Amino acid sequence: MQDRKNRPSLGGSAERIHEAFKNHSHEWCGQRITEAEIIGAGEQYRLDKGGKLLRVVSEISVRDATKAEFRAFFEAIELGQVQIYQTPLWVSGRMMHRTVLHQATGMPIDPESPAAKMQQRRFALAVQTYSIG
């Protein structure tokens, strides 16, 4: 297992990571696409110029994220399930290299946060319901 300190990170709290995501999106707008992906769910998000969260629906299409999607996205940040990266704008015939700005760890940022405690309850219920482990 790789040491958590060696992974790219945009901050130590969900708020700081979200704010850094906004800043990178704004700073690189027009040059690079900054996206966030919930690992395991396959959901991708971008921000518009005003910082509003958008849900990526296809390679060239986005829509406003719903309130439920925003809550799920923010919770995924808290749980260490979001990876934020940049890619250059698409150019025909050019290799696209992705730069990871914040790597998902799969571990909650704060194990005592409400999101982490809810996740623990969900796991306990799954173990009990499905006799896992």
Describe the structure in your own words.
This protein is of the alpha+beta class and 133 residues long. The protein has a 6-stranded antiparallel beta sheet with strand order 4-3-2-1-5-6, covered by helices on one side. The longest helix is centred in the last third of the chain and has 17 residues, at 114-130. The radius of gyration is 16 Å and the shape is globular. It has 3 helices and 6 strands.
Short description:
With 133 residues, this protein is α+β, with helices and mostly antiparallel strands. It has three helices and six strands, in the order αββββαββα.
Uncertain runs are none
Question: Which outline best applies?
Answer: globular
So how many helices? 3
Q: How many beta-strand segments?
A: 6
**Largest sheet, order of strands side by side?**
4-3-2-1-5-6
> Mean of residue pLDDT?
88
Structural class: alpha+beta
Biggest sheet statistics: 6 strands, antiparallel
